[in-house]
């Protein structure tokens, strides 16, 4: 047991000191800092305090007055009536006196229509504001021509109120469902990227030791099975360390960011009304999902002796992860679909799909217990099979990139046994 913990600690130390770990961690920390201060950064590199002037050319004075009034509340944009010609206005735009110019004329049907001129039309902020102002002007004009009370038009355009009420007492409210959907979405991405990143680490760790012949020395002192699970748990500790750093940096960034203001971390993400049991399920399914895929990654990694072959051997596992992720994305809109229900009992999809169902639906406890039982049983079975394959796989050298090598690994394992 002492050798097991030594192997686990060695795996952890080697990885935590590696350049890839440091670079990934630093880049992610920088990204978290940017995201938590995005508004301040945008304001620093943009002229948000400078009011953008738009020249308005129109023969209808009342139209201009309406347009100018429609953007009074917009402190980033101001309309200014231009008395000169269109060509002169374009020249003013090119010289930087105006951000843009809009010519408002009467269309064939008598309603207002405009033409927008600017040096670059890639910035849609100003043009969209002009479009909305012209739309309001058109509604106002048509309303007056038809002698319709503007209040009636405003009432017609007001959004309808539809309250969602669940008849079952145990069903989630619309607010709880929306917040749970956010948590499920976050967990799905965590699981997806964790399996890809840390699963790849485990397989390359094994392949590296085999390619350097270190494995031959380790086998004489530590059993292959102990090696496999030591690597799995060592990388798991690495992942917990990395996620802990990210959460801490994110928390500090959110607390100090002037863009977010007062409020807790849960307030920021909108998870204030999340059921605690949902968070517990998220942790349980995440850990079990990691163990399942990590065991598979270690098994596949033992079959290769060159780093170049590791990526190809990991392809089947990646396909499972991607398939589960895509099904889960579909399930976010229809979590009660029969296809989602059936797929949630497939062990490699269970961590994603069953958590999706638990979070968004009110399902019987026995279904959750059954899925957890299947998942734990699958981890135990895969661990047993994987240990036998690993025991033989670490003795295999040479070009190896086919699942046919599983048979060879099992035969070698029997000889060693």
Question: Largest sheet at a glance?
Answer: 4 strands, mixed
Beta-strand portion reads 5-15%
Strand order of the largest sheet: 2-1-3-4
C-alpha-based Rg, rounded:
31 Å
End-to-end gap: 20 Å
Transmembrane segments: 21-42, 183-207, 228-254, 279-301, 313-332, 368-390
InterPro entries: ABC-2_transporter_component, ABC2_TM
Domain ABC-2 type transporter transmembrane: 19-387
Subcellular location: Cell membrane
Can you describe what's shown?
The chain is mainly alpha-helical. It folds into two domains: 49-155, Periplasmic binding protein-like II (D-Maltodextrin-Binding Protein, domain 2, 3-Layer(aba) Sandwich); 172-416, no CATH class. 67% of the residues lie in helices and 6% in strands. It is built from 18 helices and four strands. The protein has helices at residues 2-16, 19-36, 38-44, 61-70, 86-95, 124-145, 150-157, 174-211, 214-219, 224-256, 265-269, 276-301, 307-313, 315-331, 338-343, 350-360, 365-393, 405-416; strands spanning 52-57, 77-81, 100-106, 112-118. A four-stranded mixed β-sheet has the order 2-1-3-4, sandwiched between helices. Helix 8 packs antiparallel against helix 14 (315-331). The two termini are 20 Å apart.
């Amino acid at each position: 047991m002492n050798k097991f913990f030594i192997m686990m600690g060695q795996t952890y130390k080697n990885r935590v000191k590696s350049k890839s770990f440091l670079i990934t961690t630093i880049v992610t920390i920088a990204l978290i800092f940017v995201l938590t201060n995005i508004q301040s950064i945008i304001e620093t590199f943009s002229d948000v305090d400078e009011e953008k002037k738009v020249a308005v050319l129109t023969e209808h004075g009342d139209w201009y007055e309406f347009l100018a009034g429609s953007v009074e509340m917009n402190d980033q944009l101001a309309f200014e009536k231009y008395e000169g010609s269109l060509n002169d206005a374009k020249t003013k735009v090119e010289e930087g006196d105006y951000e843009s110019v809009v010519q408002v004329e009467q269309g064939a049907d008598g309603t207002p229509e405009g033409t927008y001129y600017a040096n670059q039309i890639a910035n849609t902020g100003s043009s969209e504001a002009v479009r909305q102002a012209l739309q309001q002007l058109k509604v106002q004009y048509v309303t007056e021509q038809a002698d319709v009370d503007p209040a009636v038009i405003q009432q017609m355009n007001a959004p309808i109120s539809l309250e969602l009420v669940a008849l079952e007492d145990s069903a989630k409210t619309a607010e709880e469902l929306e917040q749970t959907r956010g948590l499920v979405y976050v967990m799905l991405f965590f699981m997806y990227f964790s399996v890809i990143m840390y699963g790849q680490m485990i397989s390359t760790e094994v392949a590296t030791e085999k390619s350097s012949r270190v494995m031959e020395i380790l086998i004489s002192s530590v059993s292959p099975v102990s090696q496999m699970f030591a690597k799995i748990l060592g990388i798991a500790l690495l992942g917990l360390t990395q996620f802990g750093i990210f959460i801490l940096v994110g928390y500090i960034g959110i607390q100090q960011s002037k863009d977010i203001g007062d409020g807790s971390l849960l307030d920021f993400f909108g998870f204030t009304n999340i059921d605690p049991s949902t968070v517990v399920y998220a942790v349980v399914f995440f850990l079990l999902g990691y163990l399942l895929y990590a065991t598979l990654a270690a098994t596949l990694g033992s079959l290769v002796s060159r780093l170049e072959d590791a990526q190809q051997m990991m392809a089947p596992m990646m396909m499972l992860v991607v398939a589960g992720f895509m099904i889960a994305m579909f399930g976010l809109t229809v979590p009660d679909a029969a296809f989602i229900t059936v797929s949630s009992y497939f062990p490699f999809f269970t961590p994603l799909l069953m958590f999706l169902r638990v979070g968004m639906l009110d399902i019987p406890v026995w279904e959750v217990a059954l899925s957890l039982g299947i998942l734990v049983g699958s981890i135990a079975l895969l661990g047993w099979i994987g240990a036998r394959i690993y025991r033989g796989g670490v003795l295999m050298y040479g070009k190896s990139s086919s699942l046919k090598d599983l048979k060879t690994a099992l035969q070698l394992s029997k000889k060693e046994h």
